[in-house]
Amino acid sequence: MINLKLPDGSVREVEGPLDGLAFAESIAKSLAKKALAIKIDGKMMDLSTVIDRDAIVEVVTAQTDDGLEILRHDCAHVMAEAVQELFPGTQVTIGPVIENGFYYDFARDEPFKAEDLEKIEAKMREIVDRNETITREVWSRDEAIAYFKKIGEDYKAELIESIPAGEEVSIYRQGDWLDLCRGPHLPSTAKLGKAFKLTKLAGAYWRGDSRNEMLQRIYGTCWATEADLKAYLTMVEEAERRDHRKIAREMDLFHLQEEAQGSVFWHPKGWRIWQALEQYVRRRIDASGYVEVRTPQLLDAKFWEQSGHWGKYRENMFVVPDEVPSTDEDAPVLSGKAKLMAIKPMNCPAHVQIFKQGVKSYRDLPLRMAEFGCCHRNEPHGALHGLMRVRQMTQDDAHIFCTEDQIKGETEAFVTLLESVYDDMGFTDLKVRLALRPEQRVGSDESWDKAEKALEEALNDLGREFTLAPGEGAFYGPKLEFHLKDAIGRSWQLGTLQLDFNLPERLDASYIGEDGGKHRPVMLHRAVLGSLERFIGILIEHYEGKFPLWLAPVQAVVASITSEADDYAEKVAAELRAAGLRVELDLRNEKINYKVREHSVGKVPAILVAGKREAEEGTLSVRRLGSQDQKTMALADVVKSLMDEATPPDLR
User: Fold this and answer.
1) Is 306 a catalytic residue?
2) Whether 555 is catalytic
3) Type and span of the H or E element at 279
4) 377 an active-site residue?
5) What CA–CA distances, in Å, run from 23 to 18, 134, 183?
6) What are 13-29's pLDDT values in tens digits?
7) What is the pLDDT of residues 422-470, one digit of tens each?
8) Which of these is catalytic: 479, 490, 534, 542?
9) CB–CB of 319/396 below 8 Å?
10) What is the pLDDT of residues 198-234, one digit of tens each?
11) Three-class secondary structure assignment of 335-352
12) Set 75, 348, 375, 402: catalytic member
């Protein structure tokens, strides 16, 4: 007999050994029908895996994140099988699960066409109907290399060759088709169902290296039910409609161009949003006891070597030689002999340099050091995506230097600040994850115990629900991740709070304790918005460009109906500007309906129409964005109403 502990804490004594399917049947036949895989002591395994010892066991179904991952993994395999049936000679390479779906990269001389996706989908449904059995086989490394080379799968053979000699290779057979894979997988293709869709084609370099061959990538999405698939596709359509790049063109907010990959050209209207956001955050951190600093863009490589970034992060950094370039046409521009510097990808090492100036006492802690730091990260060109993935970014970054005893209080204060900011921005659906110690880490177990306990106690004291993410902490400390949902249900990971025992040690930061001795501070890396560029991109899509008045780049347009009202319109605009509102004046010789339509496309929240009658009466016809109605109001009432609405939330 063996004892198997279930996720709810109950223990079942069963006669062993038995496989995962038999275990599911021992609980309920209905559960066995839904079962996709088994989780043994936290490790995902095939349903056919034999359980022969006491263990913590969970039956994985499609209604869980783990189940969805298996469905998407199998969907990639079914797609690869379908492609090779339809297009003989195509090589399959790598096909991982990604957020909301999967992809597979193929090597084929002839390019796929958009209409091929429908053919592949039809073949995938046929493979599901064939109910092909999926089984795991273990081959020797040499046997696997020889087999894949024999059938012309050179890319697959190359992957296996990178496996250390002597190691066994995991192969999954799906009917007559097979592939290199660690698994786990479904017991048969019928378990996949048909809630999948292939979504797009793209190019991709073999192993992500631009020096290698270009492959063809097919993306797809897969869900537990047809209803889930439909809901996702509807969300994708809505996301395309809300695309921040499209809305930015309509509103004239910013642009990007080839000559400055991943860097944003902010137009006046877009910069107004930025300034409103930055000024709001600055007021909030000032009120929360932060000091603001400014640190250099370019730092000697020695700082990045000391911090550990040089060895672990250098490929993401822009490295610059410290020399004057030659202007001699016959000589190389750079000698290649100068010492190296790097444009900062983050602010933390520079903040430690400020902390180290002068002697710090325990009475100086906590020291909350903030910077709207402009950072650069050498992201691959293919990964760049509007404001969401850039090379030049500004973070609402801060580092809190504190004692271990202050971790809990500082965490509570930060979480309270973050939630208040998100609420002001219109985000109320927030989830928190506590990422715990990974296998490879620095610091003592005692320090990790204290840090993890402090974060957990802080969340409990605040009454916040959270999930644990074992093994997902940074190598230098545990962290909190804050995930919010936007107006169409997409989740974004933005704010973070990361504990760091490592950097103060590496950069020799210390303070004098109450005992008169030297101590290392704990360093809390924290951000509320993260990258301002990315946060503005999210805001644009969340609000569909229809910002609350305090954030809107143009808060009102005063538009005249006839030239007789121009003087009055100019007076109105001047009065609104004097009240601190961002106002534009439209005196063009165009029909008023044309003006209203144009400013509505530009997402202006309030259009104030002035004609001859309004000029005589001292009123305005007010039309609000999204409404067909208009309201006649006295000028003084319009000014007061807009002033009240345009007041930032923290100043109300």
Assistant:
1) no
2) no
3) helix 268-287
4) yes
5) 7, 19, 20
6) 888 799 999 999 989 99
7) 999 999 899 999 999 988 887 788 888 888 999 999 999 999 999 999 8
8) 479
9) no
10) 999 999 999 888 889 999 999 999 999 999 999 999 9
11) CCCCCEEEECCCCHHHHH
12) 348
pLDDT exceeds 90 at position 477 = no
Strand, helix or coil at 480? strand
Model confidence over 308-349: pLDDT tens digits?
888 878 889 999 998 888 888 888 888 888 899 999 999 999
Q: Of the listed 46, 397, 486, 500, which one is catalytic?
A: 397
Q: Is 356 annotated in the active site?
A: no
**Three-class DSSP category at 109:** coil
Are 94 and 180 a contacting pair, CB within 8 Å?
no
Q: Averaged over 43-58, what is the pLDDT?
A: 91
Would you state the structure tokens that stand for residue 431, as one six-digit string?
A: 């989830």
Q: Which of 91, 174, 395, 498 is catalytic?
A: 395
Averaged confidence pLDDT in the chain: 93
Q: Half-sphere exposure (CA, 13 Å, Cβ side) for 637?
A: 9
Give the torsion through C-alpha atoms of 251, 253, 259, 263, to 10 deg.
Answer: -140
How much of the chain exceeds pLDDT 70, in percent? 100
**pLDDT interval class at 194 (50, 70, 90):** very high
Residue type, 186: L
Q: Which residue has the higher pLDDT, 82 or 329?
A: 82
| Closest CA relative to residue 474, chosen from 427, 424, 438, 421 | 438
What six digits make up the tokens of 650?
A: 């923290």
- Element housing 531 (H / E): strand 522-531
* Residue 508 falls in the annotated catalytic set: no
Distance, CA of 538 to chain centre: 10
Give CA separation, 560 vs 114, 619, 644, in Å.
49, 12, 24
Q: What is the DSSP string of 184-197?
A: ---SBGGGG-S-EE
Query: Residue 335 corresponds to which tokens in the numbers above?
Result: 């000698």
Q: How many CA atoms lie within 13 A of 327 on its CB side?
A: 1
Answer yes or no: are the C-beta atoms of 19 and 48 closer than 8 Å.
yes
Cα distance between the two ends of the chain: 67
Q: Which of 185, 368, 376, 525 is catalytic?
A: 525
pLDDT tier at 289 (50, 70, 90 boundaries)? Answer: very high
pLDDT tens digits for range 488-514: 988 999 999 999 888 998 899 999 999
Catalogue the E-assigned strands of 377-424: 392-402
- In whole angstroms, give the CA distance from residue 110 to residue 27: 51
pLDDT at 628: 85
- Of 191, 351, 399, 450, which residue is the catalytic one? 399
| Residue 620 predicted with pLDDT over 80 | yes
Verify whether residue 348 is a known catalytic residue: yes
Q: Give CB contacts under 8 A, 24+ apart, made by 2-11.
A: 2/51, 2/52, 2/53, 2/54, 2/55, 3/54, 4/51, 4/54, 4/55, 4/56, 4/57, 5/54, 5/55, 5/56, 5/57, 6/57, 6/58, 7/56, 7/58
Burial class (CB in 10 A: 0-12, 13-18, 19+), 83: buried
Dihedral, CA of residue 134, residue 140, residue 142 and residue 143, to nearest 10 = -50
Amino acid (1-letter code) at residue 552: A
Residue from 39, 376, 377, 520 carrying the catalytic annotation: 377
In this prediction, residues 571-579 reach a mean pLDDT of 97
Residues 86-100 have a mean pLDDT of 93
**Catalytic status, residue 479:** yes
Tell me how far apart the alpha carbons of residues 405 and 304 are, in angstroms, rounded to a whole number.
29
| Alpha-carbon gap, residue 32 to 37, rounded angstroms | 10
Which helix (H) or strand (E) segment is 105 a member of?
strand 101-107
